[in-house]
């Protein structure tokens, strides 16, 4: 592994959790291995590991972009990761208000519904 890959893997673990990264790595095959390498190096090593803005800010931008584009699977992943980034539920709502204005009310409405479900799930897990 290269330094970039090591950095990307560490940042990916910090944001998404070691369990998620371990599952993704275990599920990697020769077919999708190059894609896993690409996102580890490019997204996590190059972009998420930069120190120009905080993980909280990156998290909020990512949530807004994913919601605006309707990428629900990735959006759910990043909503679950907010405790690791320093973003709050209030931050998420602020990002989704921007989505409503700049990407459309239906996208924001759907993302808010998804966030409510994920936050309720997290609250149930925390109370156990």
UniProtKB/TrEMBL annotation:
It comes from the Bacteria. InterPro entries: 4CMD/NDH-1_regulator, AhpD-like, CMD-like, Decarb_PcaC. Residues 35-117 form the Carboxymuconolactone decarboxylase-like domain. SUPFAM superfamilies: AhpD-like. Pfam families: CMD (PF02627). One of its GO terms (molecular function) is peroxiredoxin activity. NCBIfam families: decarb_PcaC. This is 4-carboxymuconolactone decarboxylase. It comes from Paracoccus tibetensis.
